[in-house]
Amino acid sequence: MGNRKIRFGVVVFPGTNCDRDTYHVIKEVAEEEAVYLWHRERDLRGSQVVVLPGGFSYGDYLRSGAIARFSPIMEAIREFAEGGGLVLGICNGFQILLEAGLLPGAMLRNKGLRFICRFEELEVENAETPFTLLYEKGERVKMPIAHIDGNYFIEPHKLALLEREKRVVFRYRENPNGSLNDIAGIINRGGNILGMMPHPERASEAELGSTDGLRTFLSAAKYVRES
Amino acid sequence: MKAKIEVFLKPEVLDPQGETIKRALHTLGYDTIREVRQGKVFYIELDEKDAGKVIEEIARKVLANPVIEDFRWETEK
Amino acid sequence: MKAKIEVFLKPEVLDPQGETIKRALHTLGYDTIREVRQGKVFYIELDEKDAGKVIEEIARKVLANPVIEDFRWETEK
Amino acid sequence: MRSLKRLLEEHNLTVEEYQRIKKILGREPNLVELGLYSVMWSEHCSYKSSKVHLKKLPTKGKYLIQGPGENAGVVEAAGKAVVFKVESHNHPSFVEPYQGAATGVGGILRDIFTMGARPVALLDSLHFGPLERPSNRAIMEGVVSGIAGYGNPVGVPTVGGEVDFEEEFSHNPLVNVMCVGIAEKDGIFYARAGKPGLSLVYAGAPTGRDGIHGATMASAEFGQETEHKKVNVQVGDPFREKLLMEATLEVMEKNLIEGIQDMGAAGLTSSSSEMASKGGVGVELYLDRVPLREEGMNPYEILLSESQERMLMVAKKGKEEEIKRIFEKWGIEAVVVGKTTEDRRFKAFWKGEPVADVPVESLAGDAPQYQRPYEKPEIDEREDPAWAEERNWQKALLKIISSPHMASRRWIYQQYDHMVQTNTVLLPGIGPSVLKIKGQKEAIALTIDANPAWGRANPKAAAVLTVAEAFRNLACVGAEPLGITNCLNFGNPEKPKVMGQFVETIEGMKEALEFFEVPVTGGNVSFYNETQGKAIPPTVVIGAVGLVEDYRTIPRPERVEEGMGIFLLGWTGKDLGSSVYLKAVLGQTGGRVPEIDLEKEKLLQQQLIRLVREGKVAYAVDLSPGGLLPNLAEALFHIDIGAELSFSTREEEAYFLFGESPSRALVFAPGELEADVPVLKLGTVKGQDLVAYINGRKKLDLPLKQLRRSWESLFPSLFDK
Ligand SMILES: Nc1ncnc2c1ncn2[C@@H]1O[C@H](COP(=O)(O)OP(=O)(O)O)[C@@H](O)[C@H]1O
Ligand SMILES: [Mg+2]
Q1: For position D226, what pLDDT does the model report?
Q2: Is residue A1 one of the residues assigned to a domain?
Q3: What pLDDT score does D650 carry?
Q4: Quick one: pLDDT at residue D212?
Q5: A64 CA distance to ligand 2 centroid (A)?
């Protein structure tokens, strides 16, 4: 058991552009195993954690994530998730999970209508998910955002339910985009699918300004290793 | 056959783009504008007699996100 | 009074979004789709009897980019 | 039947040029052929007015791998090849700011990945008219979102740039974009056709009627007919570009192609004829095989279309199918549209019928070249007239840092994804961009600089000053310059005055580069930046690449701690002419540009690099535009601590505080600082205010917070109401 490496599958859709960054952090910084998963495949190649990285799948044409959700790989991911497999959607990956109905809600255009790239302070709301085990509840962490459609929307009664079920995992300290309840990341009811707008892979190396994101990957690996 | 599909935000969903345009119009002196909402429109040409079924289907499945959007469509000749 | 303004790309202007959507629809098996073009639609409410002039003006000056887009509008009651 | 005169006018060809074509062909050209010469002999493609002068620039250097003449230049850094170039997209950005800027980004990206390099950074140099005018604001807003709208989806970080404002740019903004890529040293591809009998593979977007005569349009002034020319607008498709880039890089990695050229200006014509010319072969193009977007396109249109996101490759023998498969995997169409031949002719066919047949060389190699008449430009030698009018330095500082020339650029760069690829070690706004190369301690430092106010007053000195400034920027992170790229933005070269500015600028660049022993690796010339006869100020944009030995030790604001010293290194002169101070505080333009002594400049830079590499510097900034006080304030915003200054100076205070003498830098460091240049300790990092005692009198006492607010608010207040 001990130090067995965990295999992360990093999905590549046409237009994904954070695949290489995510792969790099998993492999070189977290020192786990990483494989790319091509959108047309249906095989997850033994992945123990599936990551949908950020970027602009299909150029984000139509709506962010709207076209990628029809990829063959998404069927495999749905099955994997239904069996309890860990799925992490970052930025565009989060948007795809929303469009695919694997997470509830939808993304609207940012309140200011502009793309925003900058570090944000987040509060870890739920430190008991497989992706946040290594964080403390209430901890403040710094990670960059980079999106134009990050304004999270969900119907009021569903929002209340999300909150009641403690499924808001990350919250912005200062709301950059108009998201309801300052939501930056949520988890599904089963507790195995996390979607987050901030980029943990961009906050995993000290020279880039923060290492707060690394624990997202390390938590998932630890969770799988110990379960 | 040609079809036009309009996809628009549900009334209860805030529309940041419409809001911004409204404010811009007010600044420009168009102060009779009470509300602006922005939607998308798709002009589709397809080889099909019975296009209605296809159009309805792609609007529902692909073009609109049911969480936030509604749609309507019509065909032209 | 309510108005609807459609803003669409001039026919000779490339529409990457429409293209990409068309291709996606083909992949999904909707192979009778020959063309998809995407435009914007604005739903405007305004306090004005003679809205036509205002609508025409804001469509031209604000909503459409005359270099690449055309528009059409209609009022509803 | 149109008259010949009319036809030539439409093709922007002179009667002499037409005679020359007839002589080359030994007959009248047909319309298609006339079109070919029209684009290939346009200023934009042929550099007919500039070539004789560009030749004077130094193009040799110890790190040089590839100088001018290819799609981009290449230098060696840390065992890798760094590929970089700057391009202008001024005219299209005036016509349609969003798409103009977006397609500008697309074009320069292709120049980099055609060379086999993965693009790792974009930088942009932007110049607009004053923001009081809504039309200028609309242009700026469109351009910035166009750069974001293209660069962000492709996944190349826009890590730096510059923006400034002058009246003359109201009808002729400058949008210059630089791209930097990294390749293995043995993995560089060239725009050369190799041998005869190889297939030409077209890959990318289908061809539409976009931008037909874009190159000729970029080679003419804007006049009344601008309206009419608007139909040429091209729309960028960053999604397709991203796929094209990945597929192209994969084809290269698998070593399936002999040569490659993007279809930029003059599209299929220039890419095929240039590759053939460089490879010493001919080409045959079968135009009916070219994928088309619009119905009814004719050979003329297909050859001249400037549709975006297209590539032309020369396949290795027998590799056509494998190439097609890779492109198809990425969802990109690839088809064989022609082949290379022995006869060194450019031939195009339409359904088997020849439609053009001309010597390759006459298109690509032997375009006319002109030694255009020029006259020496007037030099503005006025000594700054009114430095003493404003004696309240506090007020002056506030005015400067809240002016468009110095206000925080955050509104711009936060619209750009500047962190994707996770290499951005120094974020925008702080100094030159520093990008690490994964797996290595070395990094590259990048900067792009221009100063049209200097150019207006003295083109030659402006070029020297701009080169010096770029290198000084690099020195602040301890980086040594490896090479530069440049974009020369001028008015109509047929006017001797403009041509004179151009020649002087080249002289200045040459002088500075020879002195620093740094080569030009490429660049771009943008002429005809005139609207209704009024030219822009001559503007040389310098993009420089430097090498950082160890990114872990670069100076950065986070390293500065309370109690550290603030030191001024270098020499102060009487340099308030054409300064930001004059513009922002006194509302004046013009005046003698700063004097520069290159020996002193080099010494300063060497000392900076040494101090940084010895680990003695916590943070350093150079002082040019704006001068000492505004740049100090800006540094403190990044550091987020105040300062207490106390010093005496023999110079007039205005020169000292706001003068733009080059060869100066501000260094934050613990303890004392020793260097072979004058060092003056100005004070200490301390508290939450900026306090200054100058020559014994308290001249400044302001909370940093208040200063920061005035610095940060300009662009948001203009654009995010
Ligand atoms: N100002 C300049 N300084 C040095 N080289 C230049 C300059 N302008 C253009 N060049 C070189 O001339 C060649 C042709 O440039 P250009 O036509 O812009 O290339 P492209 O066809 O890729 O746009 C390039 O190799 C370029 O680097
Ligand atoms: Mg090129």
Answers
A1: 42
A2: no
A3: 84
A4: 79
A5: 31
Q: Do D281 and D195 meet the contact criterion of CB atoms below 8 Å apart?
A: yes
Cβ–ligand 1 contact at D631 (below 6 Å): no
> For testing the chain A interface, which of D246, D414, D419 should be mutated: the one with the most A CBs within 10 Å?
D419
Ligand 1 pocket test target in D524, D540, D541 with most atoms within 8 Å of CB? D524
**Catalytic-residue membership of A125:** no
pLDDT exceeds cutoff 50 at D230: no
What's the pLDDT band for D295 if we cut at 50, 70, 90?
confident
Here the tokens at position D597 are 């002594």
Q: H-helix or E-strand containing D228?
A: helix D226-229
- Look up the ipTM and state it: 0.94
Ligand nearest to the CA of D191: 2
Question: Once rounded to an integer, what is the mean pLDDT over residues D72-91?
Answer: 96
Q: Give the pLDDT band (50/70/90) at residue D389.
A: low
Cα(D261) to centroid(ligand 2), Å: 6
Q: Which D residues 112-151 touch A at CB under 8 Å?
A: 145, 148-149
CB-nearest to A202 from D155, D238, D419 is: D419
Would the CB of D69 count as within 6 Å of ligand 1?
Answer: yes
Tell me how far apart the terminal alpha carbons of chain A are, to the nearest angstrom. 10
Domain that holds residue A53: 7-226
**Structure confidence at residue D220 (pLDDT):** 62
CB spacing of A113 vs B13 below 8 angstroms: no
Q: Does D663 contact ligand 1 (Cβ within 6 A)?
A: no
Res C64 pLDDT > 80:
yes
Average pLDDT, chain D: 94
Q: Which atom, in ligand 1's list, is nearest to the CA of D70?
A: 25
Preferred mutation among A70, A98, A153 to probe B, highest tally of B CBs within 10 A: A153
Residue D234 has pLDDT above 80, yes or no: yes
Q: Which CATH fold would you assign to the domain B2-76?
A: Mth169; Chain: A , (3.30.1280)
Nearest to D531 by CA among D211, D104, D225: D225
Closest chain A residue to D550 measured between Cα atoms? A207
Q: What is the DSSP code (8-state) at residue A28?
A: I
Among this protein's residues, is A91 annotated catalytic? yes
Domain holding A87: CATH number?
3.40.50.880
For residue A214, the distance in angstroms to the closest alpha carbon of chain C comes to 35
Find all residues with CB under 8 Å of D252, minimum gap 6, and list them: D116, D187, D189, D260
CA gap D404, A130 in Å, rounded: 48
* Mean pLDDT per 10-residue segment, chain A (227 residues): 85 98 98 97 97 96 95 98 98 98 97 97 98 98 98 97 98 98 98 98 96 98 96
Protein residue with least CA distance to atom 19, ligand 1: D71
Decide if D308 touches A, using CB distance below 8 A: no
- CA-nearest residue for atom 10, ligand 1, is D523
Q: Kind of pairing, strands D565-570 and D679-685?
A: antiparallel
User: What number of other Cβ atoms are within 10 A of residue D1's Cβ?
Assistant: 5
- Which residues on chain B are in Cβ contact (under 8 Å) with C34? 45-47
Average pLDDT rounded to a whole number, residues B35-61: 91
Give the nearest ligand 1 atom to D73 CA: 27
Q: Write down the pLDDT at residue D60.
A: 93
pLDDT of residue D385: 61
Q: Which of D377, D396, D243, D359 is nearest to D310 (CA)?
A: D243
A96 domain residue, yes or no: yes
Please report, for chain C, the start and end positions of each structural domain, with discontinuous segments joined by +.
Answer: 2-76
D470/D230 Cα distance (integer angstroms): 36
| Alpha-carbon span A20 to A54, nearest angstrom | 10
| pLDDT single digits (tens) D106-134 | 999 999 999 999 999 999 999 999 999 99
Strand order in the sheet with D310-315: D257-262, D310-315, D199-204, D334-341, D282-286, D345-350, D353-359
A2 is a domain residue: no
